[in-house]
Inverse folding.
């Protein structure tokens, strides 16, 4: 009998090299851990039960001089472990050249360099088998109103995405792009700050079908938004291409806690939405963690956090399934008339004139309780393991 | 010589009846001011220099018994003062029947009643000349994850909007709809919580051209978002149909302060975007205030706040124009390379292969200062009136 | 065998009459539920397992005309059920006379009326057996900087507290006062906005021993502060006289959710601190809930939320005890050197000169991992019920 | 005739070496500017009109090998320019040894090293003439509830402060300590998170008169608190020993913008409180800026921000004085009954029994408007320079 909370490849867990590899540099202090060799990361994550890794160009090949050698070692590690590369992305934020952004920097030379850097890494990503290419525009933004022409910036963002889509199409590559919104930090205000803004932007592209989202728990919660509700809207638009799971305590600096830490009830509903929320429209991609092991941890602590991210997901998945299968929950859902929302407001064949001719017993409708608290308490008791 | 900060009809200022008419009921206390007769509101706002008023059905005609009489008195007041009705909206949040929302209530009967209530008021709005019809879905949302099927709710929202668009089209009415996003309050999490989410949603409608946004300063700032940047994106999508100006102090309860109070630097950049931000893509609608005179004020204080909203806008408009006309600002914009962002990243006739063949002096680009602080300080000095 | 999560009198749960009695009036809508007779509240709460009730003067005796009759009925209900009155407080926020506050209103006449209102209700509270008298200064504050002289306001607050302390001392009453901080809502900025500000203020009173705190979960979390850490500091000062448990989702409007909803991990650590956090310095008062059953609920839903507040507390209490008793947790606490913080930094008999003479292997100390994540994961697994 | 907005030594402006010297390392990217020699910083700040500098030990003497030489060069620069050192502080956050804090680290060895590091730098500070010694405990805190025993941590914090106070007393040094609160970042939750918590803590020390506060604008605003109100309370307690001026946009990461940027209306009221808010209880220390020139700036931009901090202060000081001197403001203050709050609520010789015997015309008092908006609008017009 296996522990249901121990991950297997079938669970499709994935980690960024930069997560377990984070050395702990922040605004107020230096590195607390040594550089982690990507090859070691691959082996350790494989042992822990992960199915895939993801990377920024600079995580994997920080130095052109050793580029081919590092790529070869990495390929070998993948082959030895069976781990996949499912997603890749470009570091357009670390080097000082990107201090005003990459694809929307005021400086055209920087934009050209940024675009070339993305293209170069798409080739690596494609060669390594990644099918999702993420763009997180952490430095695309401004600290003050006059310094960034937002319309021009969105024009340039669109230009870049259109060029990138054309590139992968022309190369015949099976790659989709996923935008990762964030409201602020490190820039004062970042362009495309939420799931919504990025979804809207995609609608203006030449190849909107090739572009979707990679929403991160903490980024939405930094704006006080409900992540589960946000990804439900992304799924509704058919745009939940990828996810970044982690933990956060509301509007403050980007905490990047392990999944489950922070807003635990939010994590339950997040898994519920990913599994289809009882309605069938589920997320079918890798379960990707994007977090930072706190600076207090040595490497043992780092691996503990990686293990815990997966374990917490599996625990929550089990609880969500039990919640959705519980007959008392079915009763509570019915009492809360949740299913009734799937019924069109206007009846089949009915006209607005018909609807307007109807009389409404407003006071009687107003008096009906919705019984939402009972339903939510049942969810809480599944989460707490007391049902 | 006239005071440049005294409003005239040409400034196209507009107020909701519910703003100066707010009686001060909140979660913790009762009314502090008597009901304001809409007729008196019209006369006082006209005297103060406003050009238009807006209304919820329940503001204007709270009681069916006196409906025609109240409408007639209101029409007379408009005729006497020359004030326009430029926008109208439906109260789908005040009555307990809407405790779980209107157009996305789980209860289908409530949704039908809500839809009928909107249709009825669209007829009034059209008859009074309104060309914008706002939908603020303040009760469309949930306090907990399981109680609202977000995908079904968005289906119902879309169904409603599609029906409403078809209705005004079939009636031949020159009315556009404007969605007003809000992240939370009075519901725990409101559907379409930001400008971005609402823009994305519009893309899924049958008649997207008929639907745009009515973003409110405070609502975006409650999510820690930059309002000026948000409406700049809305303008970029061609969707800034209407605006709600007021003041707020970041993530907390909805303060609805008079315009200028709260985030004053944000107000400067808001006016800058509305005037076109030096780039020509300007807002051309009414300048509408949606705020609540604090409970500390008697009716004299209420009129003082209405006067101040308009005056602050005119002061800021003058300062923005001076900022954009200042030769030193032109120098600073050039030094900050703001205009360079309007130049496409890829040259005319250039290919990605050409771009990739280029070599980049990354360190030299990284060393260039952006001079953003100088530009922002110039803006601040215009704002402070010390240039 | 009894359900360990069903409350008994020994658990000392207490509810404000205004919690289950909240009718649902908010800024955007009217009452959704009928007035709840305090006598019915007493009977229902007793049946559910509560041990005590608390009240504002206006909850219990809204009308002078029926005052004695209502008090008699209430006394009878207490006698019949055995419920205690453990705390009382004054409504200094509901009536428009308090629109600028009560004890710190600019208007001296209002301050005098407020003080008289408090005194009158202290007499009732004392007669009904309350030993804690709470002051929540929700309207003590300002929307703008010039309108409130903060130093004078603190002088008046101090004057009021000094007078109230003298009054109960002179009357020989066994009553202590508890200040309830809140950062904002309904005022823009409230005086004594956090646990810390109120603790500091108490230090300036004539009888500081007679005054402590009544911190509310949601109020601290509205400022993004950690409630468990805040009440731990209050306990350290010997000032945790009373508590208000509920739920909140970070900086936004005051949600007043049932206990457990909102920040569930925070609720676990809150109960841990109340029980002494493994260190023995525990809270020994009533476990008081101050929340608002959502407007979506009818009276059945209201009682469901009251039941759930107590049940969630009992579930968390059981989990906290299991966490603190778990040998693996003891190991993890040792690995995290948590107990080492109780050892004075300077040794017994040691001087600073001795300490300065010591050499430090800084790099070795820097390399030690703290193993905090393992410990936190163990807590999470107790919370989730998977250990 | 001199420009009233150009600083002179009499204005007593002061800058941390780490402000203009910030190289731009953040969580997401590396240094954008070269190291700034403290000697150059002194000369440039002197030229710009500053009166003093402040430092962390590691800013000034990063390396023991060159310690005496660097101190000598620094002393020479001070002598040449006439700049004072008015405050100093210890870096207990940068080195990985402080990853769990300094004075409240779980690891006793770390605490001992931290204490020795503080003592060593107090000697330097005293020798250089600093009279204020700041303690910012940015790493004193935790990411999770079980890992830090808050009561033990406060015991250790108190032990450290008591030892430091005794040290400077015994050395006969004219130095006071100033605690700098912050709610979070870089730790998840920092001990003594606000002005209030730190004030309360000071009350438990052996020598409370020797310890006060150094509140920073952005730190309080990260908790959504009103900085001007916070320092007004600190002044009321006699504890505003020092200030850190900068700019912030509410709850989010620590932005450390130049003074004036961020919440400009808040900056106006901050200066008003520092000048005594019309009541005479003013701040009399140095006007110290603690900010970070954005990464977009080269060194020219850095000096621009330093210049702008001082200029904005002087502009606001002039406006505040004009506001307080304006006869119409005097009228508005009277109409708002602001001065009436200085009158004790209980009359001279009056008893509570007298007060309770009084009858109150509650409805008449409730009907009085407070006229706060008129007063606030006058302040805004002074700020905008349109009066």
């Amino acid at each position: 009998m296996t522990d249901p909370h121990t991950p297997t490849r079938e669970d499709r867990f994935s980690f960024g090299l930069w997560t377990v590899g984070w050395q702990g540099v922040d605004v107020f202090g230096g590195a607390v851990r040594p550089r982690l060799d990507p090859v070691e990361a691959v082996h350790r994550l494989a042992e822990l039960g992960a199915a895939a890794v993801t990377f920024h160009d600079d995580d994997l090949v920080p130095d052109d001089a050793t580029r081919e050698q590092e790529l070869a070692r990495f390929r070998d590690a993948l082959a030895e472990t069976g781990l996949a590369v499912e997603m890749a992305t470009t570091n357009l934020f670390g080097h000082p050249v990107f201090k005003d952004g990459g694809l929307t920097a005021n400086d055209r030379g920087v934009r050209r360099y940024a675009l070339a850097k993305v293209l170069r890494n798409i080739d690596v990503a494609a060669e390594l088998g990644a099918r999702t290419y993420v763009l997180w525009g952490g430095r695309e933004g401004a600290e003050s109103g006059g310094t960034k022409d937002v319309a021009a910036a969105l024009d340039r963002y669109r230009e870049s995405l259109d060029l990138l889509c054309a590139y992968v199409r022309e190369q015949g590559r099976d790659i989709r792009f996923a935008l990762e919104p964030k409201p602020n930090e490190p820039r004062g205000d970042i362009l495309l700050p939420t799931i919504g803004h990025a979804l809207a932007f995609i609608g203006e592209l030449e190849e909107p079908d090739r572009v979707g989202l990679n929403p991160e728990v903490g980024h939405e919660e930094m704006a006080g938004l409900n992540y589960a509700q946000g990804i439900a809207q992304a799924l509704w638009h058919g745009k939940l291409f990828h996810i970044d799971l982690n933990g956060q305590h509301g509007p403050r600096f980007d905490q990047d806690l392990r999944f489950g830490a922070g807003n635990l009830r939010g994590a339950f509903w997040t898994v519920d939405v990913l599994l289809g929320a009882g309605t069938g429209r589920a997320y079918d991609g890798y379960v990707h963690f994007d977090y930072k092991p706190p600076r207090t941890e040595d490497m043992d602590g780092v691996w503990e956090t990686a293990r815990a991210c997966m374990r917490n997901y599996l625990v929550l998945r089990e609880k969500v399934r039990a919640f959705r299968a519980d007959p008392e929950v079915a009763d509570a859902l019915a009492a809360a008339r949740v299913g009734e929302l799937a019924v069109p407001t206007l009846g089949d064949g009915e006209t607005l004139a018909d609807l307007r001719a109807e009389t409404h017993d407003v006071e009687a409708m107003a008096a009906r309780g919705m019984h939402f608290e009972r339903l939510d308490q049942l969810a809480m008791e599944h989460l707490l393991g007391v049902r």
